[in-house]
Amino acid sequence: MSTEEIFHKPPYLVPPEPTLRYYREALITLLPYIKNSFIIAFGTLMLTLLIALPAPFVLTKFEFSSKNSLGFLLAFVQMLPYTAVIIPLFLIFTRMKLINSHFGVILALSVFLVPFAIIILRSYMVSVPSGLIEAALIDGAGYLKILISIVLPLSAPGIASVSILVFLMAWGNFIVPLAFIKEESLRPISIGLYVFIGQYGVEWNKLMAGSMIYTIPPLVVALLAGKSIVAGLTAGAFKE
After folding, report:
1. Cα separation, 162 vs 229, whole angstroms
2. Is residue 87 part of a domain?
């Protein structure tokens, strides 16, 4: 709807002259922000998986003194809101010169998402038979080969679920990019939508169209992978 139609009184229940022009204009404006969102989301996913895939294997198949304490620490981190640690992280990242960079945002998001991924994968990898690992050790395989060749393939549904959830969380995050990125050209679409909110008014048609564009990637992922998420989160939950 045009601006005149939006503010028409009485309001229209059905747009008198519907048009997709504002979707096109919003997409052109938001393309740089969409690119930044994909960089941040995929970067966070890669870093999270790089750390989170070996960790639950160690926590489930090895015995060491601080095992229970580490599990408690992971659960504790999950209870912390972003707002509780955003200022300390900002001060640390300022000294490390990671402000105004995609890597800084990726690293900050991974601080929260790595424990989340480890907790989910840990509960899944418990169901991997220890007999397979022992047989591989007898055959001379090292732990790295066992992880890559046995544990990860058997944990594929859980890894797929974690990957999808981590991507969605990184795509939709608002507070971390807002705190860590000041340059407009580096900001993701979650902040880029504010380009349609000006000092003297709001471009409601472009803002609503941009919001729909913002929701398309998570919506597509949820529709295509919804069953995989449920299957991955419930697999290994019961022993028969």
Report:
1. 8
2. yes
Q: Give the residue numbers spanning the domain of 59.
A: 20-234
Q: Which CATH number is 162's domain given?
A: 1.10.3720.10
Instruction: Give residue for tokens 């519907």.
Output: 18
Residue 5 CB: number of other CB atoms within 10 A?
15
How much is the pTM? 0.83
The verdict on residue 9 lying in a domain is no
Six-digit token string for 228:
């995989």
In the chain (240 residues long), the average pLDDT of successive 10-residue segments reads 86 86 92 94 94 84 73 77 85 90 92 88 80 82 82 83 89 90 91 85 89 90 69 49
Among 115, 118, 122, smallest CA distance to 61 is for 122
* CA pair distance 66, 59, nearest whole angstrom: 10
Provide the number of structural domains found in the chain: 1
